[in-house]
Amino acid sequence: MPGVINMDELTDVDKAKMERDQKKIEVKLERWMTSKCCTEFMEAVQAGVEEDTLVKGIAEDKNPFKELKGGCVVC
Fold first, then answer.
1. CA distances, 30 to each of 25, 33, 34, 36, 49 (Å)
2. Which residue segment(s) compose the domain that 39 sits in?
């Protein structure tokens, strides 16, 4: 896996080659209509709603952010 590329150190030709290579990758991707993607996304969300903590919340005994009883004491 290549390391991090500092774009400021690249020449304009290098940047253009990178952009060309990225476009070659993108042009091969299968494109879908937004209406189909949205329908599939909604179905996936609704299928997992029972396990979704954003919908059903976190059980009190498993909530790491719940208020502790007794508070904090500084000595």
1. 11, 10, 13, 13, 28
2. 31-57
